[in-house]
Description:
This protein has two domains: 2-288, Purple Acid Phosphatase, chain A, domain 2 (4-Layer Sandwich); 295-502, 5'-Nucleotidase, C-terminal domain (5'-nucleotidase,  domain 2, Alpha-Beta Complex). The chain is built from 13 helices and 31 strands.
Amino acid sequence: MKNIKILSTSDIHGTLSTYSYIDQSIKPQGLSRYSNVVKKNRERYECIVVDNGDSLQGSPLLTYAHRVKVKPHPLALAFNNIKLDYFNLGNHDFNYGEEILLNYIQDLNAKCLTSNVLYKDKPIGQTQIHMSNDGYKIALIGLCTDYIPHWEKPEHIKNFTFLSPVETLKNELKNLPKVEYTIVYYHGGFERDLETCKPTEVLTGENVGYELSLIPGIDCLITGHQHRSIASTLNSIPVMQCALNATEYMECEIELPSKSTQIKLVSMSETEFDPHIEEIIKPYDDKTQIWLDQKLGRIEGYDLTIHDPFDARLNKHPYVSFINFIQKEVTQADICGTALFNQALGLKSEISYRDLVNNYVYPNSLVVKEMDGKTLRLYLEQCADYFTIKDGKISVNPMFDEPKPQHFNYDMLDGVDYTLKISNPVGQRVTSLTFNGKEVEDNQVFTVAMNNYRASGGGNFHMIPPCKTLLEIQRDMTDILAEYILDKKIVTMTHHDNIKVIL
């Protein structure tokens, strides 16, 4: 009998250190803590160490590294010091385009598992057969959600093709040599409840974890993308998923040849950080801190700090108006829409880069669509889906909290006045919609500015992609915001109480 531990991370989103850029405190997180986890386990067990994707985006340090094209990549340096064995790609790993991604892969010593993504018609990764010290063969198969083209900037993925994870897995299993154990890494989540098997979301294909679990020949399924803490059994196989930002990791101990499997999630708080990893990161962090602390300018007229995120959405916060204000100034669109991201704290009167990247965490660009009044209503109806009624009060639709927080899929628009009556049936909640004081007509045409994620239909906004694209500004929103503030030095914005959300 042979016991092997498989240690896995997923959705670390650039969290290399224990340091939090949001509140500048030390947190129970980061690859520096995970490094000690790996070291201690390798002293006692034969280990396989795997990352399941969405590692390349999400922290100010990596944002800075990408902007100045740091080489070698700091994330690759950290993973190489941990001696990562294999990695899978996630959707956010494509956020900075082909050059950044390919250089990162080149800098890594680990092998890429992702077999359903083609680069110039050839798989960017492949299934690996890991030979244990005792000669047991373990197959590791990597898959990524194929929904990426619905979100990502086209220029970032022009040379990539995304194949069905389900069909790819069937083919990979069919062509596998004889092995003692097969583990599948899928950067995507579960589309159905693990107990009732009922759909937990619109079955778009973004998440197909449940469908994958039905395919014969899998001994363990590791998932990601949804940032859920899961260690369970589904369709008779162990399934796992962990929280984001390297706050926990997944441990799978297998006994061969019996295939007996023990799984668990372990908090990073249970281990100290590795000072060597922190030392590797420090030169990059020092430069990041200087960049973050650059003062850009000042906002006058309104308090943009956010104390209650729900109230900031229920009663449109001035911070939202600020983002829309700059979008309108830059694009001259009739209407602008933006969302309050999950962890947005708002802005102080004196604004630095740190403030912007802590609030606008995604590398979105800006798109202007041509939209008629009928489509605009459909857009707002989808926004209204964010709310429900609980105990006689307006509250957040549970679908936007579970299985994954997605408050970023509620947009608030400036340029029109509208009312959402939440007690009305779904699809009939927009009870008034006016532009310049007049009711919007179905055939009336507007220019509407939004981020590229929404423009591509992200968040189930399927009515938007067919609309004609009039303008694309191929720069990150944080850059657009920063340049505007730098140019003006003092920003005197406008804020309109134009949205009514009522029972």
